[in-house]
Amino acid sequence: MTSLKPWAARLPFPTSARWLLPVVLVLLFLAILIWLPWQARQMESNERQEQLIADTLWVEQTIRFQLGRHEEDLKGVANEILAGASVKRLHERMANELKTGLELKRVMWVTPEGDVAASSDEAPPPVATLSAASRDAAERARLSRNGVYSEPAPQTVNPAGTPGAAMMDYHYPLYRGATYLGTLVATFQLSAILEEMVPWWFAQDNQVSLLDRDDRILARRAAAGPGHGVYTHKRALDLPGATVTLMTDSVKTEPKLLPNLLVGSVIVLALALLWSLLALWGHISRRLEAEEALRQQMAFRTAMENSLVTGLRARDLAGRITYVNPAFCQMVGYSEEELVGRSPPMPYWATEVMAEYEHRLQNVLQGTVTPQFETIFQRPDGTRIPVLIFEAPLVDNEGRHTGWMGSILDITDRKRIEELNREHQEKLQASSRLATMGEIASMLAHELNQPLAAISSYTTGALNLLARPEVDPATLKPALEQAGTQARRAGQIIRSVHEFVRKRKTERRDVPLATMIDGIRALIDLQARPHRVTVHTELPADLPLVRADHIMIEQVLLNLARNGIEAMARVPLQQRVLRIEARHDAAAGQVAVNVIDNGHGIPADVAERLFSPFFSTKAQGMGMGLNICRTAIEFHGGTLTHRDNPQGGTIFTFTLPASEAKINGDT
């Protein structure tokens, strides 16, 4: 019997290699023990430097803000000088400025000749004593007409010329129009600026100095401590005309390493290891709970997607199908295995719209997609099904665009219903036109009777003339011409009626509004003549074409005109005027048509139900005329409304989409 080898001998690598990982871990542990305190010390040092920079910036802004406040106050003094204030008033104002800030030592008005016109001093000298740098600043202020600081310079304190505290003058030029009145000089003591403007808590831990352009010390506010030169920072005060730098020097020393480095590190690492084990256990528990919840959500989502009648299809950025649900497979007649992973062209693409598919695919590859569109899919047996597709981008949990998700609806039933509704609407409109012709049948017969009677009279007269022995053919010409004219008149009436009532397919084209009015003008006049109504048509010369089905719009015009004519049956003759007007609304891209009568108007209770089906104020009316008119106008994307005519009667207004083409002329 063969003995078993030890477990260690069955490992795929030699024994020495098994110790490599622990050794590496120990070395890593020792490296971390050394690196962590050094890194902590470095971070603390960086934090101290960054805190010093931030505090220095705050102090610099505080100093600049206080100096800016003095500059604004000096502008107020300058305004009083220009306003002609007295010397006493100027002295009081300048002395008051010194009280608001101890860093300000003197304010005086120096004339162009160098005389002191006013000062904050009780006994000012007659002639101003300015340093060379201050005189140079005064000249630059005069030329620029803006406030300028002089370069700081030590002030002499005795006749021997011993230097004292550094001073800095601020010159503000005084101009009345183009006349130079001198300069307003404010003298600042730099040491006082540090004493008054630097907070005590900052000066307690930092040595603060003001330096000139050569880094020479102008003023200093010192603090005790051993750490000078370790953490320093310089910040320019950005004074116009002067170069003054704020320098801060922290008294803090560099941070030291921990006293008991090894023990402290071991304790910290042990605690960190324990915490990490607890955190890992908690993380694993939460992950198991999340995975269980995810499985439940996936099961729920799968059941929900399998129960949907809406097809779902996911595609990646290359157009390749990555997911389909059972509803989509049933819709196109292909299984999930046949579709997932399939690249374009797809087996359910119909040949007649292949170009459309290719165009949409190119848009998808370019990163754009149409959110909603209709198209046609093809099943394996060749059956075409119309579908409505909604597509939206797929985004992963990191916000990256990974593809497109589409929802597909089979709209076969909807298309069938729309077709039935369209056919029903056409039949209803045809019935309405026939009903309209039935209502005006008697007037139509009377209108045709006149040209037919005239034709009979003219032909009878022509026959009588032919019965004479000698007949001049020229005498027959007027009678025959009149007979032909009356025949054409009767034919025009018959053609208008035939064109109006014949059944044909709805077709929208760009047509002139005047042409549609001319097409039914004979029928309008036929109804207007018995009521002795005058019809006026006013169309602008530049009225654009309208996009419309001319027979449907002619029916709307005829119905509205007939209603207006009948509404004026009982008004005085001079008021029986029916007007048809139009205007172009370029902003809305529409043409608005008004049919205006001077009739009895529409009562409020009738107006509420005016467009309701089967509602009519006529004894023999069907109540479908205005309802059909509104449906026809809404079919064209317009609206049909009415309002009271200020002169009495009613104004019906409907809108139609305007075409880009223009026509000239009017009716």
From TrEMBL:
<keyword id="KW-0812">Transmembrane</keyword>
<dbReference type="InterPro" id="IPR013767">
    <property type="entry name" value="PAS_fold"/>
</dbReference>
<keyword id="KW-0418">Kinase</keyword>
<feature type="domain" description="PAS">
    <location>
        <begin position="296"/>
        <end position="368"/>
    </location>
</feature>
<dbReference type="InterPro" id="IPR000014">
    <property type="entry name" value="PAS"/>
</dbReference>
<dbReference type="Pfam" id="PF02518">
    <property type="entry name" value="HATPase_c"/>
</dbReference>
<keyword id="KW-0547">Nucleotide-binding</keyword>
<keyword id="KW-0902">Two-component regulatory system</keyword>
<dbReference type="InterPro" id="IPR001610">
    <property type="entry name" value="PAC"/>
</dbReference>
<dbReference type="InterPro" id="IPR035965">
    <property type="entry name" value="PAS-like_dom_sf"/>
</dbReference>
<keyword id="KW-0808">Transferase</keyword>
<dbReference type="GO" id="GO:0005524">
    <property type="term" value="F:ATP binding"/>
</dbReference>
<keyword id="KW-0472">Membrane</keyword>
<feature type="domain" description="Histidine kinase">
    <location>
        <begin position="443"/>
        <end position="660"/>
    </location>
</feature>
<dbReference type="InterPro" id="IPR004358">
    <property type="entry name" value="Sig_transdc_His_kin-like_C"/>
</dbReference>
<feature type="domain" description="PAC">
    <location>
        <begin position="371"/>
        <end position="423"/>
    </location>
</feature>
<dbReference type="GO" id="GO:0006355">
    <property type="term" value="P:regulation of DNA-templated transcription"/>
</dbReference>
<dbReference type="InterPro" id="IPR005467">
    <property type="entry name" value="His_kinase_dom"/>
</dbReference>
<dbReference type="InterPro" id="IPR003594">
    <property type="entry name" value="HATPase_dom"/>
</dbReference>
<dbReference type="Pfam" id="PF00989">
    <property type="entry name" value="PAS"/>
</dbReference>
<dbReference type="GO" id="GO:0000155">
    <property type="term" value="F:phosphorelay sensor kinase activity"/>
</dbReference>
<protein>
    <recommendedName>
        <fullName>histidine kinase</fullName>
        <ecNumber>2.7.13.3</ecNumber>
    </recommendedName>
</protein>
<keyword id="KW-1133">Transmembrane helix</keyword>
<dbReference type="InterPro" id="IPR003661">
    <property type="entry name" value="HisK_dim/P_dom"/>
</dbReference>
<dbReference type="InterPro" id="IPR036097">
    <property type="entry name" value="HisK_dim/P_sf"/>
</dbReference>
<feature type="transmembrane region" description="Helical">
    <location>
        <begin position="20"/>
        <end position="38"/>
    </location>
</feature>
<feature type="transmembrane region" description="Helical">
    <location>
        <begin position="257"/>
        <end position="281"/>
    </location>
</feature>
<keyword id="KW-0067">ATP-binding</keyword>
<dbReference type="InterPro" id="IPR000700">
    <property type="entry name" value="PAS-assoc_C"/>
</dbReference>
<dbReference type="InterPro" id="IPR036890">
    <property type="entry name" value="HATPase_C_sf"/>
</dbReference>
<keyword id="KW-0597">Phosphoprotein</keyword>
<dbReference type="Pfam" id="PF00512">
    <property type="entry name" value="HisKA"/>
</dbReference>
